[in-house]
Write a structure and sequence with these properties.
By secondary structure, the protein is mostly helical. The protein contains 18 helices and 2 strands. Strands 1-2 form a two-stranded antiparallel ribbon.
Amino acid sequence: MNSLDVSVTPDHYSNLQQFSQKASFYCALGFAFFIPISTMLMNLFLFFTLVFVLVSGTLKEHWKMAWNNPVARAGILLFLLFIAGTIWSTVNYSEALRGLKKYNELWYIALLIPLFNSEMRKQLGINTFLASMTFILVIVYSIYFGLFAQPQILIAEDLIITISVDGGFKSRIITNILMSFAVFIFAHRALLQTGITRVFYATLFTASFYYALFISTGTTGQILTVGLSTLFFIQHLRWKSAVIIPLFLGLIFSYGQYNTNTSINHAINKMLGGIEHNGGSASQRREFVTNSLYLIQENLWLGSGTGSVFQRYSEIPKERIRTNITTNPHNEYAATALQLGIAGITGLLFLYTIQYRQSKQIKPLEQRYLAQGLIALIIISSLGNSMLMDSGEGHFWAFFSALLFSAIPQKIIHGNEPA
């Protein structure tokens, strides 16, 4: 049997059920491909993934496999806490439900985990994401080098999508966050592969690394690229990385200061300006955090309820606002604490802790390292972005959480725990 079809399809299943089992997986691949390209198509393929899972005839087994997975279970429990948060929310029920929808990624993990039940499926999932990011690299570099003008796609009479060098098909924030993880994967592939395949991935690593650091102005992605590259050195060089990392950081800083036309030069100056003066990006982030702490104190243990972020931030006294008025804390920890208090933060950190513990059980070296990188990415980026509350970023994290941690329950269910 092809390893892609390890989810056994009994002979008594109808043709529709057998088709649905395979279609749900391929729709999940379509979902992953369109995360950095189109929100509409991303959601459409995710919807069809759910539909095909429902009609496949294996919903009970699907749910059992997901619930037996510690990562999926932790995500479901946190989502249940957000559901409970609609009860004591300070906003009306419809607004609370809109807030709840922003955290659907927590149960998407359970939906997707059983679909990646073989090594081939996992590799197809990773490669699909890399194909999407490579497509974006081809487009943005083509524009960057003047091979064609910046495209504009007419979606509707009043909706035009502009494909830019800085953000690809979406904003520079999400594009560069996803690109930083692509850089991380390309780096591992370039090191772990051999022959012409190594050259192929080394080329893609170089292109993605330069784009993420020196072309895109997505600061979070730049920070993540540096952070994940540092983790890459630690994973492969251990104590020797103590020598390599300072040299690596020094080269980046030196080149950024030497070539003033790079985005890293702009990012360094922006961060230094924010530290030294009010009004810069760094000072704005500090203000968002301090105002979040101010609001959280009023409902410390259980928060103000699901979906209350917008309302609570609109209540901040004007004298506390020195930079920008915002209704988004740009910090997942603050957003979660504001809605669910200490109980929510505990659930969020518990989920990240479970991911870290389970990452140690992943046998394939590349996937173990990628899982560690995913954990580092979500922890770091949540300091400057509402990662789960934001759609594209949250969907990306849910997809890779399902893919990379899908092997854990299989070993436990069949009694073959890793040695």
